[in-house]
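Take a look at the protein record below and tell me what you see:
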Amino acid sequence: MPTAPLLLILDTETSGINVAQHEVLEIAAVLYSVEHQCSLQQISTLIPTDLETNPAEAINRISIAAANATPPELSDYLCQTINYWGAIAQHVVAHNAEFDRKWFKITPSWLISTIALGFALATISPGPSSTNPVKNSLT
């Protein structure tokens, strides 16, 4: 697991605001290195759904047809990658962290981007670099 601070920056688009009734239709994520002050990786994917309509389509412009054009196995793989990033990140940053947090089971502390990102980048001191656990597991 990396020891230098990493941030998982998340953005979501959903079909509504109720976790019990609505779904995440799109997720964008960036794995950010505080030490190097740059994005290491980024993902954006629509997520297939069983919904017949998107009640929030007027806001997020995501049609059900577009969401369902994404191959489910690709969406699953990308979401697994985002979950891995959540496991190695020290913090999750989201513009509306209180809203986004309820859709995910990611455990690091959550920060609100408009308030906390500048503070986090200025105050989290980078640790020593570490080996890449994913690359090492492939060799």
About this structure: Residues 52 and 137 are 41 Å apart (CA to CA).
